[in-house]
Design goal:
This protein is α/β, with parallel strands linked by helices. Strands 9-8-10-13-14-16-15 form a seven-stranded mixed beta sheet, sandwiched between helices. It has a five-stranded mixed beta sheet with strand order 2-4-5-7-6.
Amino acid sequence: MNKLHIILGYLQTGESQKAVQFIMNTSLVTSQSIRETADCIRVSHLCALIIGKMMHAAELGILLTVTHDSFCREEDLLLSPEDYATILGNLLENAIDELSRSHSEVREIKLSMYCRPDCNLVVCEDTGGGIAPDILPHIWDKGFSSKGEGRGFGLYLISRLVDEHGGCIELETEPGVGTCFTLTFTREECDRMYQVIIIEDDPMVAAIDKQYVEADSQFRVVRTFKSGGEALAHLPKLKADLIILDYYTPGMNGTEFVDQLHTLGESPFIIAVTSANDTHIVQGLLARGVLDYLVKPFQFPRFRQALDRFLQARRLLEQGPAAWTRAPLTSWSITGRHCLPVRPWTRA
């Protein structure tokens, strides 16, 4: 792991070019392998993760490769890059850990990713000792591990993500031969859920927002951005039904973001979040069609109320204009630390 620490040190001190040069010069992973991986996995976040795992595996005498026919572009992902990082990171780390304890002469891991707009496929196979039949029924259980205490969360997290996104896991294993995990996600299943984007520069708040959103199986977070400008660059390629928008993010406030979003011709629903209880800001956002406005700190019931308001709005849209004219007009008031509707929201 010492070489990885050197790379981390370069990155933390802002010397990214030195980090790149160090990786290219290291004998652990060839420059050809790095180029081939980057050519196949065209999502920088995932590519960097895989190359890091390659180096970690090489330090342990394990060969980790990405199959030459793999192809992955960000616009084709059916899960967020963060969710895929969780899946790939745990699959690869699990395989590396298994092979590091194995006495097999061949110590190899092969990773394949095939991403099309309608289907994503991930295959991870290793030449380890396989999974014993007596523990096979328990490998997805939270906290279960044959490797000691404090382990047993990787496969549990993978299975939870697969369940949340309507995916499928196939497992082939043979003691003494190896194990192969195959994960499949299809557009048909993912499209049954509302696609949510979070714009929040505080990682902890973003994680809480994601947890709150995905507590309801009708929603899934497809991307998290740290600024409105970053989100605008990707939104035309993403099908977002709802945006959770922090009002104050680097380079652009919420009002500016909404205006530029409308200029692009995009019209997802928006729930704004901020630490400032400013009536002028609230009125400006509501005038621009923002669905709801939450003031930090907020609890899950208030967040849940905003999601319910979104579901109500979607139902009105699906029912058509006749339902809009029947619904009462909305007036708003600032109550305590929350912006609440006096009457049910409508698309009037």
